[in-house]
Amino acid sequence: MSTVRTVLGDLAPGEFGVCDAHDHLFLRSPRLPGQELDDVGAARAELAAFRAAGGTSVVQWTPYGMGRRAADLALLSRATGVHVVCATGLHQAAHYPPELPDRLAGRLAEVFVSELTEGIGTSGVRAGLIKVAGGFHGLDAHARRAMTAAAEAHHATGAPIAVHLELGTAALDVLDLLCGESGVPGDRVILGHLNRSPDLVVQRQAADSGCWLAFDGPSRANHATDWRMPEAVRALAEAGFGDRLLLGGDTVVAQARSVDGGPGMPHLLRRTRPRLVAEVGAEQVRRILVDNPARAFAVDWRQAG
Questions:
Q1: Does this model's pTM top 0.85?
Q2: Long-range contacts of 136-145 (CB under 8 A, 24+ apart)
Q3: Which CATH class is domain 13-299?
Q4: Rounded average pLDDT per 10-residue block, the chain, 305 residues
């Protein structure tokens, strides 16, 4: 039976509810000095605010080595009643100390599988997806190694692979590698940030693979998010891809949290949802927030620990 692997255990897809399909409660990176998400109290308040806005589940895409705080995720999920999914995987090399990717070389797939099936460190929390990243209009050697390892881990466990697309680019290169060379089924791949490069032709080509398109990061003035997203969602739905769409907030710095004066997770439901309802109707939006994530993150797990 397919289940969603949350930080508190496996969950029936029908219980997943209204989902923020790409966000972060904890995150740190050398590229974001002084802007870390590492405050447990703020994370709890943000989850509570999301819950009060009608949210039920959050998928955290923070991968290996970027401050996931898996044990705290479990405590926060239990305290707030919000289902939380944690990621394994590896981001771009720039997000790590130079020695870390080299230290993991040759055993990336082993690490990913272990975190999916046995748990992250001593936390007892198992990851529910694999997060990797492409580059700007291409894939460097680090990205190819990480994606190849992610594909191997997928084949061993069934876990979905979520991909950060740098400024929304290289979607087709990612699909060529994961689905073409590595044999990952399209419906096990989630492309993040595709809306940051609002090319409807590429979006439809990507959707043709059967993958999921995550329209994440609304409220960002420097990306084509809020103001271009509704028309893209409508165009994809009208083209028959309404069952492949996901929505996420992608809060990556402390100042973006609602509890710190930013839009945060509640923005997805308070502002983005009604705008999309006006564009494509309430039923389509319900599918994007409820039905689609339940299918995207549900897995018939193999090698379950």
A1: yes
A2: 136/166, 136/167, 136/169, 136/170, 137/166, 137/169, 137/170, 138/170, 138/173, 139/170, 139/173, 139/174, 139/177, 140/93, 142/92, 142/93, 142/101, 143/92, 144/177, 145/105, 145/108
A3: alpha beta
A4: 97 98 96 93 97 98 97 98 98 90 86 97 96 97 96 98 96 98 98 88 95 84 71 95 96 90 92 95 98 98 66
